[in-house]
Amino acid sequence: MPVAPPGSIPPVGGRTIGGDGRTVPRPGDGAGPGAPVASPDGSGTPGTVRPRSAAPMPGSQRPIRVFLCDDVDAFRALMRVVLEEDPAIVVCGEAADGAAGVDGVDATRPDVVLLDLAMPGMDGMEAIPLMRERAPRTRILALSGFTADRLAAPVIELGADGYIEKGEDVAVIRRAIHDAAQRVRAAA
């Protein structure tokens, strides 16, 4: 089993969870928070970032802002639904490739990014150092179908804060997001 590097999130569920473009409109989105916004060139074409503001949760800290970056539309939609079942998590943006993900992370400054590694165009491995450069406080969790023993160490070496296999239980993914966000807030 890979060992988490110092200062990272401890192993969860037997796997290392280190310290880890087309935008799809959310059903029911219209004007207001979460509504699609124009792309930098005003066209609203792929690469559009969909920022969504989150109202503070009564009696607690603001929600954990998560950015999803995965080339599979259905996977992003499913992750949004299962993550937002946790009232402490809000998905603030999505992207379908690394380049749009880098721009989206730069624009939204999320607490945590869930980043697929295998995407067309700029993949997650290329995006990690760029995301780290543009949003140094954002925690990057690589979320991949490849096994942790194969890629966790190189991904963390590139600047990701952790690695989660796509087959993990959603509770493990949520816990990794909470742990990563706690580190962001502790550093503030």
Automatic annotation (TrEMBL):
Alphabetical UniProt keywords: DNA-binding, Phosphoprotein
InterPro entries: CheY-like_superfamily, NreC/VraR/RcsB-like_REC, Sig_transdc_resp-reg_receiver, WalR-like
Region Disordered: start-end pairs: 1-61
Domain Response regulatory, first and last residues per copy: 65-181
Any matching Pfam family: Response_reg
Positions bearing 4-aspartylphosphate: D116
GO biological process terms held by the UniProt record: phosphorelay signal transduction system
Low complexity bias (residue ranges): 24-43
Gene Ontology molecular function: any one: DNA binding
Protein name: DNA-binding response regulator
Organism of this sequence: Paraconexibacter algicola
